[in-house]
Design goal:
This is assimilatory sulfite reductase (ferredoxin). The chain has about 550 residues and is of the alpha+beta class. The chain has helices at about 35-45, 50-60, 65-70, 95-100, 120-130, 155-165, 195-205, 280-295, 305-325, 370-380, 405-415, 425, 445-460, 530-545, and strands at about 80-85, 100-110, 115, 135-140, 145-150, 175-180, 220-225, 240-245, 250-255, 270-275, 330, 345-350, 355-360, 365-370, 385-390, 395-400, 430, 470, 485-495, 500-505, 520-525. Helix 5 (about 120-130) packs antiparallel against helix 10 and helix 13 (about 445-460) packs across helix 14 (about 530-545). Bound molecules: iron/sulfur cluster.
């Protein structure tokens, strides 16, 4: 289906900033906290909560936790309280936060670049089994999330994670989140440039560093030197996209100010080429601008995209060069169109060293601890020590010798991980939803898995690249605005006039050269029960009426 942008972000008019009230920008003298979040961040750095978790909260239990730590600073260590079971979506907006809080936590393990060793995956599987009731979800930012975590167990979990080089540091909170990286960095034979050294340098220099631990809001980074453009760079706060400069060779094109949720906006190019060894400095300059000039007065205007909307790329580049880097950047070319429509690396592919990587598809990112351990064992038994997570909630086993590929594929498929999945399994994503998320209105993971099964049964011949993204609320954790079919969870009326779980439908979103936001289909809300019928109808009509080349 054709992507019809609801509102082309690049053409957004620049907004006039009120000089009287200010936006809470530190760089223009607004250091007095203007809301509760800014106050608790000023009172104590989010990173400092770790000591209290280790010495007080884990020993004295849940009730000993300071409310500002519980609902604020603990995020800096990847911890959110999960939703109390049994509270329906109709109560999400009317209950106080403490009424929705369970006494258990979601714990997000950051996996920068999506890179995992067999030993790391095995440890996550063990932690899931021992401390998280077997839960584990691969997120659409390459992380792994566990649920049902008790505060008493957190220090032991950190010890196990850190023993294998993993952490939860700044996995959530108003700070630099996980650095998304191409899952085939360093191995794909069509790679323009391997961004791995930049991912590592940013991580080692700045993650857990108080220089950037109090930002206006979360800050998302993506780095990929793959021509597939496999890191959703258009919707990150900062992204480095591989390009070949006619004089200087391979490097990165710099994109700034993308983000979804309220007021979705695509990132804009600053028109500059950044060599690999300067990526970390340029990244720090962009984050510095966000820290100093980012809007802190209102939480819903505190993402970098709002500053970018007001400044535009020319001013942003000028401030970056003049105030943060103190030098001019080199002009550079735009990236070409993504080299393929599916950007997830599913299937069997030859690496540049002659070995193979094998991408496979769990349903909507849902796995479990025992299965993660089995995947680790399977990879190890086939001579691999490296795996990757993808931004499509999928996984890849790297470094497989040719004579091991068939056996690995058979082993994965025996675990119900398809290497040649249907477009529905391949292209459907779901956020956490009402099972664990306090903001959710509807169920998503189970609904998405059922939807995949139904569509595979009803449309066995359908063979087009297709994305179906399900969100449990109006936020954008599953990127509904840039899906072919985006489903935004809300309560809707059924045929009897009863309020039931359902979705507002958005159609025709896309990334890549056709990037734009899906069009909200006015008045089209579908109940969860009607969802398979509705999508079947849309896809049959699309097949019957599509024009040549139309997505
Ligand atoms: Fe929770 Fe909403 Fe995000 Fe889903 S989209 S994980 S329901 S906040």
């Amino acid at each position: 289906m054709a992507a019809t942008p609801e509102k082309p972000a690049t053409a957004a008019p620049r907004r006039k900033v009120s000089r009287h009230r200010g936006e809470g920008q530190w760089a223009v003298g607004h250091h007095t906290p203007l809301n509760g979040n800014e106050q608790f961040k000023k009172d104590d750095d989010g990173l400092n909560v770790r000591t209290r978790i280790e010495t007080i909260y884990s020993k004295r239990g849940f009730d000993s936790i300071d409310p500002n730590d519980l609902r604020g600073r603990m995020r800096w260590w990847g911890l959110y309280t999960q939703r109390k079971p049994g509270i329906d979506g109709g109560k999400t907006a009317v209950l106080e936060p403490e009424e929705l809080d369970d006494r258990y936590f979601m714990l997000r393990v950051r996996v920068d670049g999506g890179r995992l060793t067999v030993a790391q995956l095995r440890v996550i599987g063990e932690i899931s089994e021992q401390y998280a009731r077997g839960t584990a979800d691969i997120t659409d930012r390459q992380n792994i999330q566990l649920h049902w975590i008790r505060i008493e167990d957190v220090p032991a979990i950190w010890e196990k994670l850190e023993a294998v080089g993993l952490s939860t540091t700044e996995a959530c909170g108003d700070c630099p989140r996980v650095i998304i990286g191409s899952p085939v960095a360093g191995i794909a034979d069509d790679e323009i440039i391997d961004g791995t050294p930049a991912v590592d340098e940013i991580h080692d220099r700045y993650i857990g560093n108080k220089e950037f631990s109090n930002l206006p809001r979360k800050f998302k980074t993506a780095i990929s030197g793959s021509p597939v453009q496999d890191v959703v760079h258009e919707i990150n706060d900062v992204a480095f996209v591989g390009v070949e400069h006619p004089e200087h060779g391979p490097g990165f094109d710099l994109w700034v100010g993308g983000g979804l949720s309220t007021n979705p906006r695509l990132a804009e190019r600053l028109g500059t080429w950044v060599p690999l060894d300067e990526v970390a400095d340029v990244w720090a300059g962009v984050v510095g601008i966000f820290r100093d000039y980012g809007y802190r007065r209102l939480r819903n205007r505190a993402r970098l995209k709002f500053l970018m909307a007001d400044w535009g790329p020319e001013k942003f580049r000028q401030v970056l060069e003049d105030e943060y880097l103190e030098r001019k950047l080199i002009d550079g070319p735009a990236p070409a169109e993504p080299s393929q429509k599916w950007r997830d690396h599913i299937g069997v592919h030859r690496q540049k060293d002659g070995r193979f990587y094998v991408g496979f598809a769990p349903r909507v990112g849902r796995v479990d601890g025992a299965t993660l351990t089995k995947i680790a064992e399977l990879a190890g038994a086939h001579g691999s020590d490296r795996l990757r997570t993808t931004v499509e909630q999928k996984m890849i086993v790297l470094d497989v010798a040719e004579d091991q590929v068939d056996s690995l594929v058979a082993g994965l498929e025996a675990l119900d991980f398809q290497v040649k999945p249907s477009p529905f399994r391949r292209g459907t994503m779901a956020c956490t939803g009402i099972e664990f998320c306090k903001l959710a209105i509807v169920e998503t993971k189970g609904r998405g898995a059922q939807l995949i099964d139904e569509l595979e049964r009803r449309l066995p011949e359908f063979d087009e690249p297709l994305t179906i993204n399900l969100n449990g609320c109006p936020n954008a954790c599953a990127r509904i605005q840039v899906a072919d079919i985006g489903l935004k969870g809300q309560l809707v009326l059924d045929d009897n006039g009863e309020q039931v779980e359902g979705y507002q439908v958005h159609l025709g979103g896309a990334l890549g050269l056709e990037a734009g936001f899906g069009r909200k289909v006015r008045g089209l809300k579908v109940t969860s029960a009607e969802l398979p019928d509705y999508i079947e109808r849309v896809l049959k009509n699309f097949q019957a009426e599509r024009e040549d080349g139309e997505r």
